[in-house]
Amino acid sequence: MATSEAYIQYVCDQAAGAGALRYRKMFGEYMVYVNEKPLLTVCDDTVYVKRLPELAEELADAQTGAPYEGAKEHYILDVDDREKLLRVLAILEPLIPVPQPRRRKPPKAR
Q: Which pTM value belongs to this model?
């Protein structure tokens, strides 16, 4: 079951105030960016956050799971708890760098 457009919009509505928000569809699911930093992975209407030591205390009671096959274990974030969501985003935002654009390889000479 893929994430619905309504659910990703709900996640962004709940995160309003955390910074400049946008989301991008990737491989049939979504990545939520705050200030151009990829902070939330949304798969099957579930919000995942990387397991970082800085989040251990805040998310000590959170369930864990993998957003997709082969992924490392992530925290599962309850976005209905808006205050916790905003605290988690405030912790993550300074830790995660803005992704650097990838350079395209020049075509091979024949």
A: 0.85
Specify the CATH number of the domain 5-92.
3.30.1460.30
Tokens (6 digits) for 88 = 């988690």
- CA pair distance 33, 92, nearest whole angstrom: 11
Which structure tokens are listed for 78? 């309850």
Smallest CA-to-CA distance from 92 within 46, 55, 41, 48 is with 55
3-state secondary structure at position 34: strand
Contacts of 50 (CB under 8 A, 6+ apart): 72, 74, 75, 92
Q: List, for residues 91-102, the tens digit of each pLDDT value.
A: 999 998 888 888
**Residue 17, amino acid:** G
